[in-house]
Amino acid sequence: MSTNDTPASPSAPLPAPAAPDASAPLPADSPFRSERTGRDEAPQYVLPLVVHIEKAAPPARTDALRTAARAVLVMLSDERSVGEGEWAQLMRDWQDARIRKVVRRARGAEWRKACALPGITVTGDEAEVRVFPPVPLDGWPKELAKLQVSGTDLDDPEPPPAPDLAGPVLWLNPELGMSAGKEMAQVGHGAQLAWWELSETERKAWREAGFPLSVATPEPGRWQELTVSGLPVVQDAGFTEIAPGSCTVVADHPALRR
């Protein structure tokens, strides 16, 4: 796996709501609370991710999920995203508001045009995901604005390998049905929550290792244990696909296991 760096979004219609899982309370100003918070008063930004999906050779679903999560971590840790870096102010503005991520798909010429914009391409086993600096909610570059949000329904041709329980694992709620694009955004949220909880030393070690991580779906009983374990939990604001307040991902990193 490697990274390759070169110099109001539409939303899917809501299906019938899933029952919220409120077993994991969130801080009062969490960016993932479903009710209005102080973060809603700030200008709203979105972190765009584009997944490369060619009709003849789509990536495996789990590979795409892992790659999207790693793409978020790569963006968070890039030298241009911190301090006085060229993307740092955008990253601060984005993180001061709701932590929105939108995943779109591209193929052929669309993918090549997306790759010409400032951003970072992260590759997995076969998946390619390009992450871009945050953009205003209603200010997408035209090359990205015309890309489709729908059509990211990927499959795993073969059962994915068991997660490496000795390393970071992003656990998906087994009771929610989400598109691959939605799940890519959710595991990105989970990776970001884990990143925020780590010390600088722990972040450096994870980055230098290439951000290894697994994505897996536990049995329902294990999921319930995870949501009350004290590990970071993503609770969706309900903008697309699922009901507000639904817990979607638990971010399990060895350094956060108490």
List the keywords.
single chain; about 260 residues; alpha+beta; six-stranded mixed β-sheet; four-stranded mixed β-sheet; 7 helices; 10 strands; about 20% strand; disordered N terminus
SSE blueprint:
Blueprint: E1 2-6, E2 45-52, H1 61-77, H2 88-96, E3 100-106, H3 108-115, E4 119-123, E5 128-131, E6 135-136, H4 142-145, E7 169-172, H5 180-197, H6 200-208, E8 214-216, H7 220-227, E9 233-235, E10 247-252
Parallel strand pairs: 2-3, 7-8
Antiparallel strand pairs: 1-4, 2-5, 2-6, 4-5, 7-10, 9-10
Helix pairs in contact: 1-5
Kindly describe this structure.
28% of the residues lie in helices and 18% in strands. With 258 residues, the protein is α+β, with helices and mostly antiparallel strands. Strands 1, 2, 3, 4, 5 and 6 form a six-stranded mixed beta sheet that branches. β4 and β5 form a beta hairpin. α1 runs parallel beside α5. The longest helix has 18 residues. The radius of gyration is 17 Å and the shape is globular. The N terminus is likely disordered.
